[in-house]
Write a sequence for this structure.
Protein backbone atom coordinates (compact mmCIF):
# COMPACT_ATOMS: atom_id res chain seq x y z
CA UNK A 1 0.00 0.00 0.00
CA UNK A 2 2.03 2.91 -1.17
CA UNK A 3 5.50 4.07 -0.28
CA UNK A 4 6.10 4.85 3.32
CA UNK A 5 9.51 6.45 3.59
CA UNK A 6 8.37 9.90 2.46
CA UNK A 7 5.22 9.90 4.57
CA UNK A 8 4.32 13.03 6.43
CA UNK A 9 2.38 11.19 9.06
CA UNK A 10 1.24 7.83 10.29
CA UNK A 11 -2.37 7.04 10.98
CA UNK A 12 -3.46 4.44 13.49
CA UNK A 13 -7.19 3.75 13.54
CA UNK A 14 -8.50 2.10 16.68
CA UNK A 15 -11.88 0.43 16.61
CA UNK A 16 -13.39 -0.30 20.00
CA UNK A 17 -16.55 -1.60 21.56
CA UNK A 18 -17.81 1.97 21.89
CA UNK A 19 -16.39 3.93 19.02
CA UNK A 20 -13.43 4.75 16.82
CA UNK A 21 -10.35 6.67 17.79
CA UNK A 22 -7.77 7.97 15.34
CA UNK A 23 -4.14 8.48 16.31
CA UNK A 24 -1.51 10.25 14.26
CA UNK A 25 2.21 10.39 14.63
CA UNK A 26 5.15 11.81 12.72
CA UNK A 27 7.48 9.06 13.90
CA UNK A 28 5.30 6.20 15.21
CA UNK A 29 6.51 7.01 18.74
CA UNK A 30 4.60 10.12 19.84
CA UNK A 31 0.89 9.91 19.07
CA UNK A 32 -1.99 12.39 19.08
CA UNK A 33 -5.42 10.92 19.64
CA UNK A 34 -8.81 12.10 18.41
CA UNK A 35 -12.23 10.66 19.01
CA UNK A 36 -14.47 9.03 19.70
CA UNK A 37 -16.11 8.81 16.35
CA UNK A 38 -19.33 6.76 16.27
CA UNK A 39 -19.61 6.90 20.05
CA UNK A 40 -21.56 3.95 21.47
CA UNK A 41 -21.24 1.93 18.30
CA UNK A 42 -18.71 -0.87 18.05
CA UNK A 43 -16.11 -0.73 15.30
CA UNK A 44 -14.94 -4.29 14.65
CA UNK A 45 -13.39 -3.68 11.23
CA UNK A 46 -11.25 -1.01 9.60
CA UNK A 47 -9.59 -0.75 6.22
CA UNK A 48 -7.14 2.01 5.32
CA UNK A 49 -6.97 2.18 1.55
CA UNK A 50 -4.08 4.29 0.29
CA UNK A 51 -4.25 3.21 -3.34
CA UNK A 52 -4.60 5.67 -6.15
CA UNK A 53 -3.15 8.63 -4.27
CA UNK A 54 -6.11 8.86 -1.92
CA UNK A 55 -6.44 7.76 1.69
CA UNK A 56 -9.84 6.27 2.37
CA UNK A 57 -10.69 4.99 5.82
CA UNK A 58 -13.42 2.35 5.74
CA UNK A 59 -15.04 1.28 8.98
CA UNK A 60 -17.54 -1.39 9.83
CA UNK A 61 -19.77 0.19 12.45
CA UNK A 62 -22.40 -1.63 14.46
CA UNK A 63 -24.90 -0.21 16.87
CA UNK A 64 -26.69 -2.56 19.21
CA UNK A 65 -29.81 -0.57 18.45
CA UNK A 66 -29.48 0.51 14.84
CA UNK A 67 -27.57 -2.35 13.29
CA UNK A 68 -24.44 -2.57 11.15
CA UNK A 69 -23.23 -0.36 8.35
CA UNK A 70 -20.04 0.69 6.57
CA UNK A 71 -18.87 4.29 6.60
CA UNK A 72 -15.96 5.74 4.70
CA UNK A 73 -13.98 8.92 5.03
CA UNK A 74 -11.74 10.45 2.39
CA UNK A 75 -10.55 13.27 4.66
CA UNK A 76 -8.98 11.32 7.49
CA UNK A 77 -12.07 11.30 9.64
CA UNK A 78 -13.27 14.87 9.21
CA UNK A 79 -16.45 13.65 7.52
CA UNK A 80 -17.99 10.21 7.08
CA UNK A 81 -20.24 8.91 4.36
CA UNK A 82 -22.32 5.84 3.74
CA UNK A 83 -24.36 4.86 0.72
CA UNK A 84 -28.02 5.49 1.45
CA UNK A 85 -28.99 1.89 0.89
CA UNK A 86 -25.95 0.52 2.68
CA UNK A 87 -22.64 -0.80 1.40
CA UNK A 88 -23.32 -4.39 2.41
CA UNK A 89 -26.83 -5.65 2.11
CA UNK A 90 -27.95 -9.24 1.65
CA UNK A 91 -30.03 -9.75 -1.50
CA UNK A 92 -33.65 -10.64 -0.92
CA UNK A 93 -33.32 -14.28 -1.93
CA UNK A 94 -30.56 -14.86 0.64
CA UNK A 95 -33.13 -14.37 3.41
CA UNK A 96 -30.43 -13.13 5.73
CA UNK A 97 -29.53 -9.92 7.47
CA UNK A 98 -26.08 -8.49 7.99
CA UNK A 99 -25.08 -8.75 11.63
CA UNK A 100 -21.52 -7.44 11.72
CA UNK A 101 -18.68 -6.56 9.35
CA UNK A 102 -15.63 -8.40 10.65
CA UNK A 103 -13.11 -7.60 7.95
CA UNK A 104 -12.49 -4.87 5.40
CA UNK A 105 -9.57 -5.70 3.17
CA UNK A 106 -8.39 -3.46 0.34
CA UNK A 107 -6.97 -5.65 -2.43
CA UNK A 108 -3.58 -5.25 -4.12
CA UNK A 109 -2.31 -2.08 -5.77
CA UNK A 110 -2.80 -3.83 -9.11
CA UNK A 111 -6.55 -4.06 -8.49
CA UNK A 112 -7.51 -0.51 -7.54
CA UNK A 113 -11.03 -0.11 -6.28
CA UNK A 114 -11.33 -3.72 -5.20
CA UNK A 115 -12.12 -4.13 -1.53
CA UNK A 116 -13.14 -7.37 0.15
CA UNK A 117 -15.27 -7.77 3.24
CA UNK A 118 -15.83 -10.69 5.58
CA UNK A 119 -19.03 -10.70 7.54
CA UNK A 120 -21.36 -12.31 10.02
CA UNK A 121 -23.33 -14.37 9.12
CA UNK A 122 -20.45 -16.19 7.42
CA UNK A 123 -20.08 -14.45 4.09
CA UNK A 124 -17.52 -12.86 1.83
CA UNK A 125 -18.21 -9.75 -0.21
CA UNK A 126 -16.36 -7.88 -2.94
CA UNK A 127 -16.52 -4.25 -3.94
CA UNK A 128 -15.12 -2.80 -7.12
CA UNK A 129 -15.90 0.82 -6.25
CA UNK A 130 -13.59 1.37 -3.33
CA UNK A 131 -15.87 -0.12 -0.72
CA UNK A 132 -19.03 1.87 -1.37
CA UNK A 133 -21.04 -1.12 -2.59
CA UNK A 134 -20.28 -4.78 -2.07
CA UNK A 135 -21.57 -7.87 -3.83
CA UNK A 136 -22.18 -11.13 -2.00
CA UNK A 137 -19.86 -13.98 -2.98
CA UNK A 138 -22.39 -16.58 -4.04
CA UNK A 139 -19.95 -19.44 -4.24
CA UNK A 140 -19.31 -19.33 -0.52
CA UNK A 141 -22.84 -18.28 0.44
CA UNK A 142 -24.34 -21.26 -1.40
CA UNK A 143 -21.65 -23.68 -0.27
CA UNK A 144 -23.07 -27.09 0.69
CA UNK A 145 -21.11 -27.04 3.96
CA UNK A 146 -22.89 -23.92 5.19
CA UNK A 147 -25.37 -25.78 7.36
CA UNK A 148 -22.53 -27.40 9.26
CA UNK A 149 -20.51 -24.28 9.96
CA UNK A 150 -20.75 -23.11 13.52
CA UNK A 151 -20.23 -20.06 15.63
CA UNK A 152 -17.35 -19.18 17.85
CA UNK A 153 -17.98 -17.16 20.99
CA UNK A 154 -17.95 -13.90 19.07
CA UNK A 155 -20.34 -15.06 16.37
CA UNK A 156 -20.13 -16.95 13.08
CA UNK A 157 -18.08 -14.97 10.63
CA UNK A 158 -15.59 -14.97 7.80
CA UNK A 159 -12.79 -12.98 9.41
CA UNK A 160 -9.70 -13.49 7.26
CA UNK A 161 -9.39 -12.91 3.53
CA UNK A 162 -6.06 -13.52 1.81
CA UNK A 163 -5.68 -12.89 -1.92
CA UNK A 164 -2.62 -13.93 -3.87
CA UNK A 165 -0.96 -11.52 -6.32
CA UNK A 166 -2.78 -13.03 -9.31
CA UNK A 167 -6.15 -12.50 -7.69
CA UNK A 168 -7.16 -16.04 -8.57
CA UNK A 169 -6.17 -17.79 -5.38
CA UNK A 170 -8.22 -16.62 -2.39
CA UNK A 171 -8.12 -18.05 1.11
CA UNK A 172 -10.82 -17.34 3.64
CA UNK A 173 -10.87 -18.36 7.29
CA UNK A 174 -14.01 -18.63 9.32
CA UNK A 175 -14.90 -19.46 12.87
CA UNK A 176 -16.05 -22.09 12.84
CA UNK A 177 -15.51 -23.80 9.54
CA UNK A 178 -11.80 -23.38 9.07
CA UNK A 179 -9.86 -22.42 5.96
CA UNK A 180 -11.51 -22.46 2.54
CA UNK A 181 -9.63 -21.89 -0.69
CA UNK A 182 -10.74 -20.71 -4.09
CA UNK A 183 -8.54 -21.14 -7.15
CA UNK A 184 -10.86 -19.22 -9.45
CA UNK A 185 -11.02 -15.80 -7.87
CA UNK A 186 -13.81 -16.74 -5.49
CA UNK A 187 -16.25 -18.59 -7.73
CA UNK A 188 -15.86 -21.94 -6.00
CA UNK A 189 -14.48 -22.95 -2.63
CA UNK A 190 -13.01 -26.05 -1.03
CA UNK A 191 -11.98 -26.63 2.59
CA UNK A 192 -8.24 -26.81 3.18
CA UNK A 193 -7.61 -27.81 6.80
CA UNK A 194 -5.42 -30.88 6.53
CA UNK A 195 -3.24 -30.87 9.64
CA UNK A 196 -5.22 -28.31 11.64
CA UNK A 197 -6.68 -29.75 14.83
CA UNK A 198 -10.30 -29.49 15.82
CA UNK A 199 -9.74 -31.14 19.21
CA UNK A 200 -13.14 -29.90 20.36
CA UNK A 201 -14.99 -32.09 17.84
CA UNK A 202 -15.72 -35.82 17.98
CA UNK A 203 -13.38 -36.27 15.01
CA UNK A 204 -10.42 -34.03 15.81
CA UNK A 205 -9.24 -34.06 12.20
CA UNK A 206 -12.29 -33.23 10.11
CA UNK A 207 -12.24 -31.91 6.58
CA UNK A 208 -13.75 -28.68 7.90
CA UNK A 209 -15.17 -27.31 11.12
CA UNK A 210 -11.92 -26.02 12.58
CA UNK A 211 -11.94 -22.81 14.57
CA UNK A 212 -9.15 -21.01 12.77
CA UNK A 213 -8.76 -17.64 14.46
CA UNK A 214 -6.65 -15.84 11.89
CA UNK A 215 -4.60 -16.54 8.77
CA UNK A 216 -2.01 -14.42 7.02
CA UNK A 217 0.15 -14.90 3.93
CA UNK A 218 3.89 -14.70 3.74
CA UNK A 219 4.52 -11.69 1.56
CA UNK A 220 7.56 -13.14 -0.18
CA UNK A 221 7.00 -16.89 -0.47
CA UNK A 222 4.31 -18.01 -2.85
CA UNK A 223 1.93 -20.49 -1.26
CA UNK A 224 3.12 -19.95 2.31
CA UNK A 225 0.47 -19.17 4.89
CA UNK A 226 0.38 -18.94 8.66
CA UNK A 227 -2.56 -19.71 10.93
CA UNK A 228 -3.38 -19.05 14.56
CA UNK A 229 -5.91 -21.70 15.45
CA UNK A 230 -8.12 -22.28 18.47
CA UNK A 231 -5.10 -23.99 20.03
CA UNK A 232 -2.43 -24.55 17.46
CA UNK A 233 -0.13 -22.36 15.40
CA UNK A 234 0.51 -23.59 11.88
CA UNK A 235 2.29 -22.94 8.61
CA UNK A 236 1.47 -24.14 5.14
CA UNK A 237 4.02 -24.12 2.34
CA UNK A 238 1.71 -25.47 -0.32
CA UNK A 239 -1.16 -23.04 -0.51
CA UNK A 240 -3.08 -24.63 2.38
CA UNK A 241 -2.95 -28.17 0.97
CA UNK A 242 -1.34 -29.19 4.26
CA UNK A 243 -0.51 -27.49 7.54
CA UNK A 244 2.22 -28.24 10.06
CA UNK A 245 2.64 -27.01 13.60
CA UNK A 246 5.03 -24.18 14.29
CA UNK A 247 3.97 -23.80 17.93
CA UNK A 248 7.21 -25.13 19.41
CA UNK A 249 9.00 -22.30 21.13
CA UNK A 250 5.87 -20.38 22.02
CA UNK A 251 4.64 -20.20 25.61
CA UNK A 252 1.16 -21.22 24.47
CA UNK A 253 -0.49 -22.22 21.23
CA UNK A 254 -3.75 -20.37 21.87
CA UNK A 255 -4.42 -16.84 20.72
CA UNK A 256 -6.19 -14.83 18.08
CA UNK A 257 -3.55 -12.80 16.27
CA UNK A 258 -1.51 -13.72 13.21
CA UNK A 259 0.47 -11.02 11.43
CA UNK A 260 3.01 -11.28 8.64
CA UNK A 261 5.68 -8.90 7.44
CA UNK A 262 4.70 -6.68 4.52
CA UNK A 263 7.76 -7.72 2.47
CA UNK A 264 10.16 -10.08 4.23
CA UNK A 265 9.91 -13.84 3.95
CA UNK A 266 9.54 -15.87 7.09
CA UNK A 267 8.57 -13.12 9.51
CA UNK A 268 5.33 -13.39 11.47
CA UNK A 269 3.99 -12.25 14.83
CA UNK A 270 1.59 -13.86 17.30
CA UNK A 271 0.33 -12.79 20.72
CA UNK A 272 -0.18 -15.96 22.74
CA UNK A 273 -2.88 -16.43 25.34
CA UNK A 274 -2.62 -19.20 27.87
CA UNK A 275 -5.51 -21.42 26.81
CA UNK A 276 -9.08 -21.69 25.62
CA UNK A 277 -10.23 -21.89 29.22
CA UNK A 278 -7.79 -19.24 30.44
CA UNK A 279 -7.76 -16.38 27.97
CA UNK A 280 -5.07 -14.24 29.49
CA UNK A 281 -1.42 -13.70 28.56
CA UNK A 282 0.58 -16.62 29.95
CA UNK A 283 1.33 -15.91 33.62
CA UNK A 284 -0.27 -12.51 33.18
CA UNK A 285 2.76 -11.30 31.23
CA UNK A 286 1.83 -9.79 27.90
CA UNK A 287 4.28 -10.40 25.07
CA UNK A 288 4.40 -10.46 21.32
CA UNK A 289 6.36 -13.28 19.72
CA UNK A 290 8.07 -12.96 16.38
CA UNK A 291 9.56 -15.54 14.11
CA UNK A 292 12.04 -14.64 11.39
CA UNK A 293 12.45 -18.18 10.13
CA UNK A 294 8.88 -19.14 9.29
CA UNK A 295 8.15 -20.57 12.71
CA UNK A 296 11.28 -22.62 13.39
CA UNK A 297 12.13 -20.32 16.29
CA UNK A 298 10.31 -17.53 18.12
CA UNK A 299 11.59 -14.42 19.89
CA UNK A 300 9.73 -12.99 22.87
CA UNK A 301 9.15 -9.22 22.56
CA UNK A 302 7.94 -7.35 25.62
CA UNK A 303 10.05 -4.23 25.91
CA UNK A 304 7.70 -1.40 26.77
CA UNK A 305 4.83 -3.67 27.71
CA UNK A 306 3.44 -3.74 31.26
CA UNK A 307 4.75 -6.14 33.90
CA UNK A 308 1.24 -7.51 34.42
CA UNK A 309 -1.64 -7.61 31.98
CA UNK A 310 -4.66 -9.86 32.20
CA UNK A 311 -6.59 -8.66 29.17
CA UNK A 312 -6.60 -10.56 25.91
CA UNK A 313 -5.90 -9.30 22.40
CA UNK A 314 -8.55 -10.06 19.79
CA UNK A 315 -7.91 -11.29 16.25
CA UNK A 316 -8.10 -7.96 14.47
CA UNK A 317 -6.84 -5.87 17.36
CA UNK A 318 -3.34 -6.17 15.90
CA UNK A 319 -1.78 -5.09 12.64
CA UNK A 320 1.42 -4.14 10.89
CA UNK A 321 2.08 -1.16 8.67
CA UNK A 322 4.07 -1.26 5.45
CA UNK A 323 6.91 1.00 6.52
CA UNK A 324 10.59 0.10 6.82
CA UNK A 325 11.13 -1.19 9.41
CA UNK A 326 7.58 -2.45 9.78
CA UNK A 327 5.45 -1.07 12.57
CA UNK A 328 3.54 -3.43 14.83
CA UNK A 329 0.42 -2.33 16.67
CA UNK A 330 -2.05 -3.96 19.00
CA UNK A 331 -4.72 -3.15 21.53
CA UNK A 332 -6.14 -5.06 24.47
CA UNK A 333 -9.63 -5.68 25.71
CA UNK A 334 -8.62 -3.41 28.57
CA UNK A 335 -8.37 -0.53 26.12
CA UNK A 336 -4.62 -0.03 25.95
CA UNK A 337 -2.99 0.35 22.56
CA UNK A 338 0.70 -0.19 21.87
CA UNK A 339 2.85 0.66 18.89
CA UNK A 340 6.28 -0.44 17.82
CA UNK A 341 8.25 1.32 15.10
CA UNK A 342 10.84 -1.45 14.93
CA UNK A 343 9.00 -4.68 14.26
CA UNK A 344 8.21 -5.30 17.91
CA UNK A 345 11.62 -4.78 19.48
CA UNK A 346 10.28 -1.85 21.53
CA UNK A 347 6.70 -0.84 22.24
CA UNK A 348 5.25 2.43 23.42
CA UNK A 349 1.77 3.16 24.68
CA UNK A 350 -0.48 5.03 22.24
CA UNK A 351 -3.61 5.14 24.37
CA UNK A 352 -5.01 3.60 27.49
CA UNK A 353 -8.37 3.16 29.22
CA UNK A 354 -10.28 3.08 25.96
CA UNK A 355 -13.17 0.63 25.60
CA UNK A 356 -12.29 -2.93 24.50
CA UNK A 357 -10.13 -2.72 21.40
CA UNK A 358 -11.64 -4.75 18.57
CA UNK A 359 -9.58 -3.67 15.58
CA UNK A 360 -6.51 -1.61 14.75
CA UNK A 361 -5.12 -0.65 11.35
CA UNK A 362 -2.16 1.57 10.56
CA UNK A 363 -0.70 3.22 7.51
CA UNK A 364 1.41 6.11 6.40
CA UNK A 365 -0.74 8.94 5.12
CA UNK A 366 0.13 12.08 3.24
CA UNK A 367 -1.79 14.56 5.38
CA UNK A 368 -1.80 15.10 9.11
CA UNK A 369 -5.18 16.58 9.92
CA UNK A 370 -7.32 14.10 11.77
CA UNK A 371 -10.24 15.46 13.73
CA UNK A 372 -13.97 15.67 14.04
CA UNK A 373 -16.45 13.12 15.24
CA UNK A 374 -19.43 11.26 13.91
CA UNK A 375 -22.32 9.23 15.14
CA UNK A 376 -24.63 6.70 13.57
CA UNK A 377 -27.12 9.53 13.18
CA UNK A 378 -24.69 11.42 11.00
CA UNK A 379 -25.99 12.76 7.77
CA UNK A 380 -25.33 10.48 4.85
CA UNK A 381 -24.41 11.03 1.26
CA UNK A 382 -25.20 8.75 -1.62
CA UNK B 1 -41.92 10.16 16.32
CA UNK B 2 -38.21 9.56 16.18
CA UNK B 3 -35.56 9.53 18.91
CA UNK B 4 -33.16 12.44 18.65
CA UNK B 5 -30.24 10.25 17.57
CA UNK B 6 -32.08 9.31 14.37
CA UNK B 7 -33.43 12.71 13.47
CA UNK B 8 -30.41 13.72 11.34
CA UNK B 9 -31.31 10.80 9.06
CA UNK B 10 -34.77 12.29 8.54
CA UNK B 11 -33.67 15.76 7.58
CA UNK B 12 -33.71 16.85 11.21
CA UNK B 13 -37.36 16.05 11.72
CA UNK B 14 -38.64 14.51 14.92
CA UNK B 15 -42.10 13.81 13.55
CA UNK B 16 -42.83 12.15 10.23
CA UNK B 17 -46.39 11.84 8.97
CA UNK B 18 -48.08 9.59 6.44
CA UNK B 19 -51.47 10.27 4.93
CA UNK B 20 -54.11 7.64 5.69
CA UNK B 21 -57.86 7.60 5.29
CA UNK B 22 -58.26 4.17 6.78
CA UNK B 23 -56.22 2.08 9.18
CA UNK B 24 -52.80 1.01 7.90
CA UNK B 25 -50.27 -1.38 9.32
CA UNK B 26 -47.12 -0.31 11.13
CA UNK B 27 -45.21 -1.80 8.22
CA UNK B 28 -47.13 0.45 5.87
CA UNK B 29 -46.48 3.47 8.04
CA UNK B 30 -42.76 2.73 8.19
CA UNK B 31 -42.60 2.17 4.44
CA UNK B 32 -44.34 5.48 3.87
CA UNK B 33 -42.36 7.64 6.26
CA UNK B 34 -38.92 6.15 5.57
CA UNK B 35 -39.35 5.87 1.81
CA UNK B 36 -37.26 8.92 1.14
CA UNK B 37 -34.89 8.20 4.02
CA UNK B 38 -33.39 4.78 3.25
CA UNK B 39 -30.60 5.16 5.81
CA UNK B 40 -33.25 5.77 8.47
CA UNK B 41 -35.13 2.72 7.29
CA UNK B 42 -32.01 0.57 7.69
CA UNK B 43 -31.59 1.72 11.27
CA UNK B 44 -35.07 0.47 12.15
CA UNK B 45 -35.37 -2.70 10.10
CA UNK B 46 -32.84 -5.11 8.64
CA UNK B 47 -32.82 -6.18 5.00
CA UNK B 48 -35.33 -8.97 5.67
CA UNK B 49 -37.76 -6.34 6.87
CA UNK B 50 -37.59 -7.38 10.52
CA UNK B 51 -37.57 -4.70 13.20
CA UNK B 52 -34.15 -4.64 14.82
CA UNK B 53 -34.03 -6.42 18.15
CA UNK B 54 -33.42 -3.35 20.29
CA UNK B 55 -35.73 -1.01 18.45
CA UNK B 56 -39.07 -0.66 20.17
CA UNK B 57 -42.10 0.62 18.30
CA UNK B 58 -45.21 1.73 20.14
CA UNK B 59 -48.68 2.27 18.72
CA UNK B 60 -50.79 4.42 20.96
CA UNK B 61 -48.54 3.49 23.85
CA UNK B 62 -48.38 -0.27 23.25
CA UNK B 63 -45.24 -2.03 22.06
CA UNK B 64 -45.99 -3.80 18.79
CA UNK B 65 -44.30 -7.06 19.78
CA UNK B 66 -47.17 -7.49 22.25
CA UNK B 67 -49.66 -6.69 19.52
CA UNK B 68 -49.44 -7.99 15.97
CA UNK B 69 -45.91 -6.84 15.24
CA UNK B 70 -45.51 -5.02 11.95
CA UNK B 71 -49.06 -6.06 11.05
CA UNK B 72 -50.43 -4.00 13.94
CA UNK B 73 -52.92 -1.52 12.58
CA UNK B 74 -52.68 2.20 13.10
CA UNK B 75 -55.88 4.21 12.84
CA UNK B 76 -55.86 7.55 11.04
CA UNK B 77 -54.47 10.08 13.47
CA UNK B 78 -52.70 7.35 15.43
CA UNK B 79 -49.21 7.80 16.78
CA UNK B 80 -46.26 5.50 16.15
CA UNK B 81 -43.43 6.08 18.58
CA UNK B 82 -39.92 4.72 17.97
CA UNK B 83 -37.65 4.40 20.99
CA UNK B 84 -34.39 2.54 21.40
CA UNK B 85 -34.53 -0.06 24.14
CA UNK B 86 -32.43 0.23 27.27
CA UNK B 87 -30.13 -2.56 26.09
CA UNK B 88 -26.41 -1.95 26.15
CA UNK B 89 -23.49 -1.91 28.50
Amino acid sequence: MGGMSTAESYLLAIGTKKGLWLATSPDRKEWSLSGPHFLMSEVPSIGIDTRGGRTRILVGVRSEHWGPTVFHSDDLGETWNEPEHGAIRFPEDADAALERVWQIHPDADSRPGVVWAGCEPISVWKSTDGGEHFELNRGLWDHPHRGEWGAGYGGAAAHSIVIDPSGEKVHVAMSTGGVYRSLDGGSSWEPRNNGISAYFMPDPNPEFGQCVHKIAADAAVDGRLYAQNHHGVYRSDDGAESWESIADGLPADFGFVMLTHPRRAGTAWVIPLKADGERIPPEGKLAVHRTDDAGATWKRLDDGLPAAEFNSVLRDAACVDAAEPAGVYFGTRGGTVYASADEGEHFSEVASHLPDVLCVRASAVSAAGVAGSASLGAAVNA
Amino acid sequence: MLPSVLQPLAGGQSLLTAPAETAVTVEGVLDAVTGEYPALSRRLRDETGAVRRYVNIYVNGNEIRRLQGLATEVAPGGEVLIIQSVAGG
